[in-house]
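Record Alpha/beta hydrolase, 306 aa.
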Amino acid sequence: MFDGFDDFEMPTEGARIRVRRSGQGTPLLLLHGYPQTGAMWHKVAERLRDRHTLVVADLRGYGQSAKPATAPDHAPYSKRAMASDMVQVMAALGYDRFLIAAHDRGARVAHRLMLDHPGRVAAAVLLDIAPTREMYADTTDAFAQAYWHWFFLCQAAPFPERMIGGDPRFYWLKKCGSGSAGLSPFTPEALAEYLAAWTPETIHASCEDYRAAATIDLRHDEEDGGARVECPLRVLWGEHGVIERCFDALAEWRKRAVDVSGRSLPGGHYLAEELPDLVAEEIHLFFTEKGSDLLQQEPSLRTPAG
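=>
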């Protein structure tokens, strides 16, 4: 995976972030979901690297990125802290303005990034989520049963950590293999990386991610006073997944963003691995349409940093 990519770590104020970078063209930050790493983008990356300079990051707490100590309010694992990591990484690479494609937890980080740093993102593609605040507010029995992990992982430490730690491989395979496509989206190479990274430290950090989502992240959403994402947003979700069954994704995102388009794709939750050709095409077409002015007005974004 990621042949020809530079692979390195970058320091931020609160962590060290693992980054893989390659390609040419406008900078595109790729963010992963739970319980994965940046490896989830490996199929899409091969299809986009001739069109974009790709920056594939492991979120703090995941993969080879740092797992900083937490705090009683879970602030070190808030989406605000994770978003700040990504802004710092991109700035250090020379990209003050960039595109984002993000899945699952990474898409929640991207949402906070676009609110906290509105001038940084030219356009974004989000995979298979509705906004966190709206998903909690509209919880139904069907959603709670399908997304049971939301309500399990946010329990006080060390309860979920101990339960998962009893058989971490079984948990990972059961959690990620329970969707409509089973484990078929995951190549052996990607699966090996995910399981190798599923350490006690990652398990604890990922629980903190969900504890933050249920507490401080919601407070940050409320403190925004109804602020909406201003850059163009493309929302894609699996027609065989929970978002399709339980939410009106476009209606929910239009509560939180000004310029929203999107559609379902014929897959489940792990779209980038299940339907890489289609996801890459959607990303390319959307950024070609919405990023044309950016390309013309900011030619410095067309080449990699140093």
